[in-house]
User: What shape does this take?
Amino acid sequence: MSKLPVFKGRRLVKFLESLGFRVTRIKGSHTRLISEDGRATTVPVHGNKDIPKGLLRKIIREDLAMSLEDFTELYSRYKGK
Assistant: This one.
């Protein structure tokens, strides 16, 4: 099992935008993103704080509907750009 990367809220939003998600609204410190195929998620952007591991796993598994391995693979390719 691959190690899950540590994300700040803004960095996760940028990564999700590179995957085809678009920001639909920002309310307070939460950013709502939706993809073309209907998947949606809300990412907390609390200053410079890291997103908790449990919340990141929930976003990946339930909201993005992908495995942790697929997510880390896509992120490793994204970092290489």
